[in-house]
Every structure is written in structure tokens, then in C-alpha cells.
Amino acid sequence: AAAVNTVANGGVYVAPKLLLATIGSDGEVVETEPSVTRTVLSPETAATMTDMMEDVVCLGTGRDARLDGISAAGKTGTAYKNSNGSYGEDGNRAYRASFVGFFPAQAPQVTILVTIDEPDPTSNDRFGGKAAAPLFATVATAAIHELAIAPTPGDTGCAAG
Hints:
Elements: H1 2-8, E1 12-14, E2 21-23, E3 29-31, E4 37-39, H2 43-58, E5 73-80, E6 95-103, E7 110-117, H3 128-131, H4 133-147
Antiparallel strand pairs: 1-4, 2-3, 5-6, 6-7
């Protein structure tokens, strides 16, 4: 998620943070220090990667992550799991399926990482685009409503077709 956030942030890495603030016994709220940041990608590279990640959602393996009326950028992932020093053979493998994405693609506000541990290995739904991407779309849709996220002007999501 931190790596994808770097793309979403225009090439700036922001260290993950677990606490926004603490509340003392007296009720005083003390915000934590800002996260450490550093530029690790050029803005041009981050923009190119965002465009490619939008294509993953609109045209590629992440089509099941599409959102109604708002753009998303993302990446699917499918991996064999190691079990007892082996990755198994066809028909006898365990998988991990994932999808990570952010939205709106050109003005990101939310990043979501979905990992499915050991989807049914006999199904075509064992891949990131089929096992994890639909859950991304469900959680993202809930976040859009809960956080009242509106698309940027001109953003209509993926083109029809």
C-alpha cells in the first residue's frame, strides 16, 4: 500500500503511521508528528504509472475493480504460496490473490489493498483480478458514499464498452 501511495502522491513516499493522535488522562488530544516523506519517483514517472494503472482497471486484468462514475487506478496480483519448501505443481498449488488501487485516479483520496489468502485453487476466481478486485470495488463504493468523495470534473470512470 505504501508503494502504491507513492504513485498516488505524485512520487512522494509518505511513511505509514498507526496513530493520528493520543488522548491523555486529562482529555488533552496530542497529534503525533507528521510522517517522514521523501521523493522517490519523478512526478512524470508517477503520472505514467497512474495512467497504466487506470488501464489495468478499465482495460486489463482489474476490470472487476471498476467504479461507477469515478476513476480508479490499480494493480492485480496472483502468487503461489510456499508450503513446506515447495510451490506445488499444477492442480496442487495454494494461491494468494491481491488487488491494490486508489481513487479518484487523477486526484487520489483513498487507497485500498485487498488480499485473499488461498482462494479456491480449482476456480478461475483464484487470480487477483477475479478474487480480490471485486472486493476492492465493494469497499471503495462504500468509502465513496461514507466519505462523500466526488469525482474530479470530467472524471466519469472507465469509458463504456
